[in-house]
Design goal:
This protein has 465 residues and is of the alpha+beta class. The chain folds into three domains: 3-118, Jelly Rolls (Sandwich), CATH 2.60.120; 161-297, no CATH class; 311-457, Heat Shock Protein 90. It has 13 helices and 15 strands. A hairpin with a 4-residue loop joins strand 12 and strand 13 (388-395). Helix 11 (353-370) packs antiparallel against helix 13 (426-436). It is elongated, with a radius of gyration of 34 Å.
Length: 465
């Protein structure tokens, strides 16, 4: 390892030959075989590595899987050495040789000593900057993420509470309706009604086709009033409760007269009560099924959104991710009209669904906020001529001013107050799309229309993950 090897790197252009020679004396040359682990995530960053030849892949563990977060491919790129100015500095990723590679290694303590001798103020500034930025950024990001998580959890709890409360109410009413139906059946047997007569009543009821829900509200209301009057005149208990259920099933006073002919005037009241309460039981069971189905759908949306039980990189349906994100943000979409224009020819793509869902969450949340919760949100997907899946999220808000649009993807830039938003700036969304998925993200805004456009490649080797 000689002075000439390092002089070729622009990294050391500012060093004199004497300084470079001293650096060579404290450093060592290292060759790494393909797939050899050079440093490990979480270990103390007590060595500074400079790439001379070859390549190094940077891997970070997410759950039970290792995901690639970057690569060193150009001579002069470096990693580690944070221990030179931060005694608690650690390696944020694992470095693994992608091929036979040559590196220059310098112990962090020697790097600190030389840096302090050559650039005393610079090292002092770096230490202060690292400590301050790390503390402020960590606190801000954690706070924003916790606020966003709390808001998301509260919204999800609200969405689940509605069907859960509906199921609870239906179950409570089921006990009463079932008891009433059994009581009416007991009274029918006391009147000597036979099994054949009960079968005739049920056959007569099934012969009537109920109207589709909501198809004729005025006709149903008129039929309900007629039934209520008939039931009151014939001594049927709970007529106010039975009439709506019977009218929804298509029954009318004419059918009640038919039942009178089957069981006789003395037994018609318990017969009607038996049928009416049975209809109520059936309707309540339908409510329970719908409510529990809604809860199951929400749980499925959460699993799809979080991707906790799936591999990091997988073939995904982009539309599924958009739909699960809409389900997670349903609490914010109360007065927003959602329009979907999902093309049927969009292929599945290799991607990291959990990260893409975070992007969709951020963009949709921004769009709803821009509209102040009232307007039209349009989501579309299509396969463009370049072989990329294009996702567009459009809102009818006032649009972005030119200066805001120009800075939309800058790190730390936001127009939201503290505590608002998802804690995931558009800069991070850009990194996920561009750096992790080799795609493109752009914004097109004018008064009354803002479109966030994401393009994801279909072919290739998939995302860096």
């Amino acid at each position: 390892m000689g002075l000439a090897d390092l002089r070729q790197l622009t990294l050391f252009d500012s060093l004199s030959d004497a300084q470079l020679g001293e650096l060579v004396r404290v450093g060592t040359e290292r060759w790494a075989a393909p797939d050899e682990e050079i440093w490990h995530e979480g270990q103390p960053a007590d060595t500074w590595w400079v790439l001379l030849e070859g390549s190094v892949t940077l891997l970070k563990r997410v759950g039970k899987e290792e995901s690639a977060v970057g690569a060193m491919t150009t001579p002069g790129q470096w990693a580690g050495g944070f221990g030179a100015w931060d005694p608690h500095g650690i390696c944020f990723a694992t470095g693994r040789a992608g091929e036979r590679s040559r590196l220059f290694e310098v112990p962090a303590e020697d790097l600190a000593r030389l840096g302090s001798e050559w650039f005393a103020f610079g090292v002092h500034f770096i230490r202060g900057l690292v400590d301050t930025v790390r503390r402020v950024e960590s606190t801000a990001r954690q706070r924003e993420a916790l606020v966003a998580l709390g808001t998301l959890a509260a919204g999800l709890a609200h969405e689940i509470n509605n069907p859960a409360a509906a199921a609870t109410r239906a179950v409570d009413s089921l006990a009463s309706a079932s008891e009433s139906a059994v009581s009416a059946l007991v009274r029918l047997t006391a009147h000597g009604v036979s099994a054949e007569q009960l079968a005739s009543i049920e056959a007569s009821r099934r012969a009537i086709t109920p109207p589709p829900p909501g198809s004729d509200p005025l006709g149903t209301a008129d039929r309900e009033d007629e039934l209520s009057d008939w039931l009151s005149e014939h001594g049927v208990a709970d007529e106010w409760l039975l009439a709506p259920a019977m009218a929804a099933a298509g029954l009318s006073p004419t059918w009640c007269h038919e039942v009178t002919g089957i069981v006789g005037p003395a037994a018609v009241a318990p017969a009607i009560e038996w049928v009416g309460h049975s209809l109520i039981v059936s309707a309540l069971l339908g409510e329970v099924k719908d409510a529990t189905g809604r809860i199951s759908d929400l749980v499925g949306a959460v699993r799809s959104y979080s991707q906790l039980d799936r591999a990091a990189v997988q073939l995904i349906d982009v539309t599924e991710g958009l739909e699960s994100t809409l389900a997670m943000l349903a609490y914010k979409l109360g007065s927003v009209t959602v329009e979907r224009d999902f093309s049927s020819d969009v292929p599945r793509i290799a991607a990291i669904p959990g990260e893409l869902n975070q992007v969709w969450t951020n963009v949709i949340d921004n769009a709803v906020d821009a509209m102040d919760g009232v307007g039209t949100l349009r989501l579309s997907t299509r396969l463009d001529d370049l072989g990329s899946v294009t996702v567009e999220i459009e809102d009818s808000g006032p649009g972005m001013p030119a200066d805001v649009q120009a800075r939309a993807f800058e790190p730390f830039f936001t127009t939201k107050d503290v505590g608002k938003g998802t804690g995931l700036g558009l800069d991070i969304s850009r990194r996920i799309i561009v750096e992790r998925h080799s795609g493109e993200i752009s914004v097109d805004s004018s008064p009354g229309r803002t479109v966030m456009r994401v393009m994801l490649p279909v072919g290739g080797q998939g995302p860096v993950a």
